Amino acid sequence: MTKQAQTSISEKTSEDIDISRIATGAGVNFLGTITRAVFGFAFVLLISRVLPIDSLGLFTLGMTISLLLVNICILGLGNGMWRFVAAYNAKGDIAKIRGALAGSVSVAVPFSLLVATVIIINADFISTRIFSNPDFATTLRLFVLTVPLLDRKSTRLNSSHIPLSRMPSSA
Fold first, then answer.
1. Alpha helices in the chain (DSSP H)
2. What's the mean pLDDT when you consider all of the chain?
């Protein structure tokens, strides 16, 4: 084997390194998704064993409404951050990246607080008129309290997955 062939086999190109980084990131993401699904399933299994059937129904309904409200209150800002962070990162403007992230939270959280307040005030009406179950009012109030917290978390976490390192132009 020639010296040039040995050198090309032993040295990794920047393309190989980029593919390796992408594969590693995908593997970590996949592992995190599987872990989250397993823990989520275990939690639901535990709750279903502990709570009586009527309370389990109220819990599931409260959780569903809470998650639906979080998705509405985020206003798509978490996903929109991908575009802005990428653009500002290409320019090397870290201050604008921080500003975009802070701006998304400063818009979504007050909106979610407003939505949560309206639902908490009207929980009795919603539980009796829409769901025909007056016992649901307390559960609804408790789950709606989590909306601003989950909203802030979702907006931040969605945008925190955005890599701040640049891929070389050869990729």
1. 3-10, 14-50, 53-73, 77-91, 94-121, 123-125, 136-144, 147-160
2. 81
Q: Count how many residues are written for the chain.
A: 171
Q: pTM of the full predicted structure?
A: 0.68
Buried b (16+ CB within 10 A) or exposed e, 112-140: beebbeebbeebeebbeeebeeeebbebb
Segment 129-158 mean pLDDT: 82
- What's the pLDDT score for residue 49? 93
130: three-class secondary structure by DSSP = helix
Distance of CA 14 to the CA centre of its chain: 32
CA distances from 69 to 3, 63, 77, 140 (A): 64, 10, 14, 12
Q: Is 159 exposed, middle or buried (0-12, 13-18, 19+ CB in 10 A)?
A: buried
Per-position b or e across 50-84, b if 16+ CB within 10 A of its CB: eeeeeeeebbebbeebbeebbeebbbebbebbeeb
